[in-house]
C-alpha cells in the first residue's frame, strides 16, 4: 500500500483538484450514475411537470393581441434658431432615453388615462364584479339588511382594479435597435384589443403635449416671481458692499494695502538685524573659546605682543644652553614673558567686552523691530478680517447680479418659445383587430412543459443527490472519507445463504461457497490489505467500523477464513469487550479468554479455540463485564500482540466501533493497519471520516474502507463505465 500520509494528501477534500481529461470523463460518468440511480425521481417529476403545463395550456381560453407602433422623433426642429434655448430638451437619441419612454408607456398613469378614455370600468372583462359576501348572504337569508358601502369608495376600488388589469394586458417593447416602440394589448375580443393599443398610443402623445404646456406655464409664472425677488436682492447687496467699505476704511494702493507694504519693509530690516546679531554672537563665542580665535588673531595689539613673546622664548632657549633656570638672565626673561601674557589676556578681555556690547546692541535692535512688526501684524489682522467680510459681500453681490441677469435672459427665451410645442413621437402604424388568436400556443406549451419537466427533474435528482449522505460507491469513499475503498462485499439474502436446506450465516457461507461472489469480494479485500504494497507489510490488522451493526465482525471472520483457506496461519482476537461479537459468531462459550490472558490468570494456549469449520484460531472473550483498567493500552496487550505476530501469519483484531468506544483508538496504534467497515447505503460518510480522523490522531495506519452489504445489481447502475458496472456478467464465473 502507498504511504498513509500520501493517501491523505491525495484525497484531501480541502485542496482544489486539477481538472484533467480523465476528471472530465469521470464527471460525466458521475452525472450518468446519478441519473441511473435516481431514474424514477427524474421520471416522476418530469412527467408531473409536463402534465401540469400541458393541461394548463389546453384549458386556457383564446386571447387576441393587437399592436400599435410609436416612432420616437429624435430630429430637432428649432424654429427660432440656436440663439434661443428651449425650456425643455428634445428627446436625446440614446438607449437610456428610449427605455425611459418605454417605462412611461407601461406606467400606471397612462393606463389610468386609457381606462377613463375607453370607460373600461364598465367592461366586465376588466372591472371586478363585487359579489355579496357570505355574511351578506346569511343576512339576506334571514331577511336582514346589510350595511351599504360608500359608492365613491366602490368606484375608486373598481377603477384601481381595472387599471391593474389593463396594465397586465399591455406589453411595451422596443423594435430591435430602432426608434420604434411596439405597444401590444391583448383581450378576449380582437376589436377591444385594437382599441386599447391605439388608446395607449394616443394618450401617450397627448400626455407629452400636456406636459410641455404645463412646463412652459409653470416656468413663466415661476420666472416672473423669481425676477422680482432677485431684483430687490441685488440692490440690497450692492448697497451693503458700499456701506461696509466706508465703515472699515479699507484703503489700498495698487494690489496691496498700506499696512502690508509697511510690514514687508520691517520684515526685511528684521532679517538683516537677526543676521548681524547671529554674526556678533558667533564672534563672541569664538573669543570665549580661546585666545586663538579669529578676533584675537585679527587684533594688531595681540599680534605685536605675541611677536615679542616669541622673541623672548627664542632668547630663553639660547640662554638655557649656557645657564641654568635660576640664572638672573633666565629669571628676567621669565618675568618679561609673564608680563607679556598678562597684557595679551587684558587685550583679549577688552575685545570680548566690545563683542558683548555689540551683541547687546544687535539684540536691542532685533527686539525693537519685532515689537514694531507685532503691532503692524495686529493691524493687518484686523484689516484682513474686515477684508474677508468685504470679499464675501462682493462675491454675494456679484453672484446675485449674475443670477438676476441669467433669469432675465431665460424669461425672455421662454416668452419667445411659447406656442410652438410639439410631441416627441408620432404613430406610423395604428393597431387593427387581429385575425387569429395569439395564445395559447399549444405546441409551445408542450415544448415548454417538456423542457421544464426535464429541468425540474434534473434539479430534483441534484437535490436528492445533495441530500444523500451515505456511501454507495468507491468514489464516494475516496471523495467523502479521504481514504481508498479496498473492496465492496455483496449482500447475500436468505435464499442464497440456504445451502442444502440449512440457513448459513455469512461467515459460514464463505466455507460452504468459497468461490461465490461473497468469497471473491473478501479475497479482493484481502489482496488490497495484505498485498497492496511490498514496502509495508500488514500482519496485524484491526477491523472496526464507525458505528455499531456495520458488519465488521462478519468481515473480520470472513477475511480470517479466506486467509486460512489460502494457507496462512490465521488468528482472530475478539477485542469487543461489550458485545463479544466474534465469540458469539463462532458459537463459542468459554470460561477464559482475552481478559484472563491480559490479567495473567490464564495463558495464551489455554484460551485459544479452534474454528470448527476452518483452520482459524480464535482468542475469545469469556465475559463482557466492564473493567476500569486500560487493557488494550497496557504492556500485557503489546506483549500478547508480539507473541501472536511471531506465531501466526495473519492476526485479525475484531474491535469495537470507533465513535462510541475509545478502545479501538488505542488498539489502532498497536496494529500494522486498520480496516474500516461501512454499511453500504446506510453509514453516513461524515461519520466514517470522523472515525478516520480520530484513528489518525492515535497514529493509526488506515488501510482503507470496505463497503459491506452491497446490492450488486444496484451498484452496477450506480457506477456506470466502471468495474462494478459489469457485475452481472461476472456472476457466470461465481459458484453459488
Characterize the structure shown.
- It is built from 26 helices and 14 strands.
- Strand 13, helix 24 and strand 14 form a beta-alpha-beta unit.
- Helix 5 packs across helix 7 and helix 16 packs parallel to helix 18.
- The longest helix has 90 residues.
- The N terminus and C terminus are likely disordered.
- By secondary structure, it is α/β, with parallel strands linked by helices.
- It has an eight-stranded mixed β-sheet, with helices on both faces. Strands 2-3-1-4 form a four-stranded antiparallel β-sheet.
| CATH class designation of the domain at 474-733 | Alpha Beta
CATH architecture of the domain at 474-733: 3-Layer(aba) Sandwich
CATH superfamily of the domain at 474-733: P-loop containing nucleotide triphosphate hydrolases
As a percent range, the share of helical residues equals 55-70%
β-strand number = 14
Strand order of the largest sheet: 5-14-13-8-12-9-11-10
- Summing up helix and strand content along with how strands pair, one would put the structural category as alpha/beta
Q: Based on CA inertia axes, which overall geometry fits? A: flat
Nearest-integer average pLDDT: 76
* N→C terminal distance: 31 Å
Portion of residues in beta strands equals 5-15%
Largest sheet: 8 strands, mixed
**Annotation field: number of helices:** 26
By CATH, the topology of the domain at 474-733 is Rossmann fold
Point out poorly predicted stretches: 1-24, 78-84, 714-736
Rg over CA atoms, rounded to whole Å, is 55 Å
